[in-house]
Design goal:
Strand content: over 45%
Radius of gyration: 20 Å
Distance between the termini: 31 Å
Number of helices: 3
Low-confidence stretches: 7-18, 54-59
Number of strands: 13
Shape: globular
Length: about 325
């Protein structure tokens, strides 16, 4: 607990002189459900853009590839909470998924130009009581007037994790106007490798709106939206809006939560392929942006008969 508090303090202090700050909150409360992926929260910071105007790699040793000349470094702390469908039972529910919390600290580097980016991320985390899933979930239930969950004493045990992520994204088409409707189409792909999750993923997103912030309109199943903080062009101040819709596909090789649960007797044979649908609206005012969204994705296991549906919001602020 002591080290977790120190990490939280470090991330908070880092944001005081940050270029971009964001807060993201996901919860199935917005969809009227309370099961499986039930809560997620992320606090992120992204530093000022470092420009590489000279293409010479001899003069610019930081340059990683030949296509990008801008760099941003960032940190985030995130948490997800997993619960079974019936939260009134205090004993293990082996015909469902277990209780589990995951708390992680990420460090990431973006290398980008006006049309594409590469993301390099390292994430260290913990599953178990140290992830504070019980405290956060029951605290939220108290806030909204719901009963506390009964089965947190059966949650998965402590496991420390490390993961690496690489993602590449491209704006395949765009039509931006100072007045009137603008549109763009964004695609990305990437992979995770580690002892928390190992997978490959691909996604696409279409957006239409007016006076919105030009960025990489990235959609990822759980919380990884820091690429949306990269501003590709100077924003016309004032009010703006955008509607986005997207699809993401994932091939899952390993999930600590699902595979560990299966080894302990839970019926969590994971689905290898999963898909998710996303729809969201952005509202922009000067240096503030808030995104409200809904997401539906394939069930995690073959035992589940219904998709996972949740909603959420993301707020970002440019210092």
């Amino acid at each position: 607990m002591k080290y977790i508090k120190q990490l939280l303090f470090l991330v908070f202090v880092s944001t005081l002189n940050a270029d971009q700050f964001s807060f993201q909150f996901n919860n199935d409360f917005f969809a009227g459900t309370d099961q499986h992926f039930t809560n997620g929260v992320t606090i992120s910071w992204l530093d000022d853009t470092f420009n590489q105007d000279d293409n010479s790699t001899d003069k610019n040793p930081l340059k990683i590839s030949e296509i990008n000349s801008n760099y941003n470094f960032g940190l985030s702390i995130s948490q997800i909470v997993i619960t079974p469908m019936d939260t009134t039972i205090s004993t293990p529910q082996y015909d469902d998924i277990p209780y589990a919390g995951y708390l992680a600290l990420s460090a990431y580097l973006f290398e980008w130009n006006a049309n594409s980016f590469n993301e390099f991320r390292i994430e260290v985390g913990v599953v178990g009581e140290e992830a504070l899933g019980e405290q956060v979930q029951n605290g939220f239930h108290t806030l909204v007037g719901n009963e506390k969950l009964k089965g947190w004493d059966t949650q998965l045990g402590t496991q420390y994790t490390i993961n690496a992520l690489f993602r590449h994204g491209d704006i395949s088409w765009k039509s931006h106007k100072n007045e009137g409707l603008s549109m763009d189409w964004f695609n990305h792909y990437g992979l995770n490798i580690g002892n928390f999750i190992t997978d490959v993923f691909v996604g696409t997103m279409f957006r239409i709106g007016e006076n919105y912030i030009e960025n990489f309109n990235a959609h990822y199943p759980y919380l990884r939206k820091e690429a949306t903080l990269l501003q590709l062009a100077k924003h016309n101040r004032g009010i703006g809006w955008a509607l986005s819709a997207g699809l993401n596909g994932e091939l899952l090789a390993y999930s600590h939560i699902l595979d560990k649960a299966k080894s302990e007797g839970y019926e969590t044979s994971k689905r290898t392929f999963k898909a998710s649908l996303y729809i969201g609206i952005d509202i922009v005012y000067n240096i503030h942006k808030i995104t409200y969204f809904y997401q539906a994705q394939s069930a995690d296991t073959y035992k589940q008969n219904s998709p996972i549906i949740f909603g959420g919001f993301m707020y970002s602020y440019q210092f």
